[in-house]
Amino acid sequence: MATMKDIARLAKVSTSTVSHVINGSRFVSDEIREKVMLIVADLNYTPSAVARSLKVKETKTIGLLVTATNNPFFAEVMAGVEQYCHQHQYNLIIATTGGDAKRLQQNLQTLLHKQVDGLLLMCGDSRFNADTELSISVPLVIMDWWFKELNADKILENSTFGGYLATKTLIEAGHQNIGIITGNLKKSVAKNRLEGYKKALSEAEIPLNNDWLIESHFDFEGGIIGMQNYLPHHTVQLPYFVAAMRLHWVLIKYFNNRVYEFRRTFPLLVTMTSNFPVIFIPLFLPLTNLKPN
Fold it and tell me: CB within 10 Å: which end of the chain, N or C, has fewer?
């Protein structure tokens, strides 16, 4: 691989002159500039990004750490982040945690060792340890969750209001017995949506029935288990507020695989943050989509 020393030797100039030509950092005569650039082309020379980053203390790279890439919400966020980075000549490195705290720590350290210029974290199912907090010396933005002890900018949705608005929509449609499929209540998003659900019931003076609360993991397998544990033992057809798009898919799948009939008296309301193809929703299952503005 050619180096600036090779170019300088062939052009009979100093390495600093070659550097100024390549980086445009100082005036160099047209004659010397043309000679250097011809040699650069002949040698197929590519400047070292690592060397440049050490000099200017900038890698033009952003690190994004997410729980999973197969979640539609995460996928859309990643697409938006990548597009914005591309528009501003930044590279994006994506790493996943799989919901594992140890993996989060390892991938976070890997991104920091690559000297990223900034970090975006979207993994609300994990926690930091004190050593990791102290090691984060780059600009940090947390999305979709919050960690109060960590000093960082935060981008959050109002999950409590979302849960409230979803439940209120069903109440205004004339429903009184309303169930909720929350997702994992260890996660702040699920807890906040449940609080909004309770608030709407309380305002309407509808008593809370804990039998109508289904806690489930946000993944497909956990959602199916939640349905299997709950629905076969309850014959009353309730309208349901589904607190996550993937849990809505689980419910649709569960209904499709069962022999008993779900009539149009079983509506669903789902908080939808991704462009889910509505064509896959069974015609017998009425759906209300509550999208954020």
Answer: C
